[in-house]
Amino acid sequence: MSFLLHPTQSLMSSTPPPIVYTIAGSDSGGGAGIQADLHAIQSMGCHGCSAITCLTAQSSTGVTGVHTPPAEFLRLQLDTLVNDLYPRAIKVGMLGSKDLALEVGSFLKSIKEKHDNDEVELPFVVLDPVMISTSGHKLIEDDAKEAIIKFVFPYVDVVTPNKFEAEELLGRVLQSPKDVEMGAKEILKMGAKAVLIKGGHSLSESNDKKDNNIQSLEEMNNDTLGYAQDYFLSSEGPLTPDEERICDGCRGVWLRATR
Questions:
Q1: Residue partners of 93: CB distance under 8 A and separation at least 6
Q2: Fewer CB within 10 A of the terminal residue: the chain, N end or C end?
Q3: Distance CA 49, CA 117 (A)
Q4: Dist CA 103 CA 105 (whole Å)
Q5: In what order do the strands lie in the sheet with 194-197?
């Protein structure tokens, strides 16, 4: 006797785990992209589905090439998934071209319209705007940034740029904690509901210690180099009595842990 299980079903449980999409690039080195996302999704007890935006040739030392399949094939992946495996959450990663950004924006818009018609529950959407690799390789075309802001940001619950990606979005260098806080407010104005700027620890590494801004870093921690510091800001308004959030829409919070 043989039988088939739904991909999210197990022999041990009749309750399927939550489904999470990763819409991202493939990292042949396994350290980032869909490979890392699927590990993280599974570790949280969820079922991961993937829609690949691009293929990279890379290792732990850097990126040697990027290949982008036709944008229409990305949409085919997404439409095929959503008709069978509807997501509770969606993580969007590398969108290296304008066409890819347009396809993902169109897909997220269609999800929102289904929710507005009370057909389905709206999934939580996270955007990691992958623009520059850790080795300094540019991973995005120049016109893709504007398309991401215009067509993807409006459907995103939280955007998570690192310091260098935030600088790319803003068009300027962030040299102090105050710069990061102001930058987060500007990114919120681009359309996302919340922003997490990752990598505040790099501020002390890139600043000249003679810069007056370094004093504010030292006030935050006497050994900033030993910490990773991220900054979170939400655009949501004041809390109601039955709500809990880590910031009130007016002031963000610094999240710090040992590196």
A1: 22, 23, 24, 25, 33, 34, 37, 53, 128, 130
A2: N
A3: 25
A4: 5
A5: 62-67, 47-59, 19-27, 89-92, 124-127, 158-159, 194-197, 227-234, 253-258
Please, what are the domains in the chain?
A: 19-156 (3.40.1190.20)
**How far is Cα 32 from Cα 137, in angstroms, rounded to an integer?**
14
Q: How far apart are CA 235 and CA 229, in angstroms?
A: 20
Dmax over CA atoms of the chain, in Å, equals 75
Residue 21 CA to residue 92 CA, distance in Å, equals: 8
Whole-model pTM? Answer: 0.81
User: Over the stretch 35-92, which tens digit does the pLDDT of each residue have?
Assistant: 999 999 999 999 999 999 999 898 888 888 888 889 999 999 999 999 999 999 999 9
Categorize the per-residue pLDDT at 158 as very low, low, confident or very high, splitting at 50, 70 and 90: very high
- Residue 177 to residue 187: CA distance in whole angstroms: 15
CB 123 within 8 A of CB 87: yes
Asked whether 25 and 52 are in contact (CB, 8 A), the reply is yes
Spatial contact of 68 and 54, defined as CB atoms under 8 Å apart: yes
